[in-house]
Amino acid sequence: MPALRRAALALLALPSVAALAADAMPARKPGLWEMSSEMSMMPGQKMVARRCIGPGGDGDLLERNPREHKNCGEAKVSRKGAEVITEVVCKVEGSTATTRATLSGDFQAQYGGRVDTRYAPPLHGMTSSTLSIAARWLGPCAPGQKPGDTEISMPGGRINLQEMKKNMPQR
Fold first, then answer.
1. Rounded to an integer, what distance in angstroms lies between the CA atom of residue 149 and that of residue 163?
2. What are phi and psi of 69, to 5 degrees?
């Protein structure tokens, strides 16, 4: 499997920590957000996603289909100073994914942090993954964009997340 596709699939496989604890997470300002991230499986190679977020948080990158929530336990959310820490355990493709996300920022102009996940047994050969995130608000969504519209640029190419999801087999 090409590294580009494997990295994108790993990004999609990360449990939905923020979505499962949406009531406790700070709301992001609606509009176009740019999120730069680096995955532990691809050190030194950044991915940049631009995503349109709606007024109710709809279109959030970490948002998941409600049917996927049944595979996760209750998210535990705590605050430590300016940090929001969320922990959750999910079943992902026969593996147990234990995830801890630590995020901080004002969520109106910027935020950042990291998401650490351990897989038991390994998921597609991965025993753990780390996603480092730095995000910033760019302004209103572009004309014609709707909440959830996303484009990801990464080493080796560019993908449209909606098109990729359409072509993925349903679980």
1. 10
2. -65, -30
Q: Is 27 helix (H, G, I), strand (E, B) or coil?
A: coil
User: For 119-168, what is each residue's pLDDT tens digit?
Assistant: 999 988 889 989 898 999 999 998 988 888 888 886 666 666 666 666 65
131 contacts 37 by C-beta, under 8 angstroms:
yes
In angstroms, the CA 153 to CA 62 distance is 17
Phi, psi for 150 (deg, rounded to 5): -140, 140
Nearest by Cα to 62 from 136, 135, 11: 11
Region of residue 97 (phi > 0: left; psi between -120 and 50: alpha; otherwise: beta): beta
SS3 state of residue 108: coil
Contacts of 110 (CB under 8 A, 6+ apart): 134, 135, 136, 137
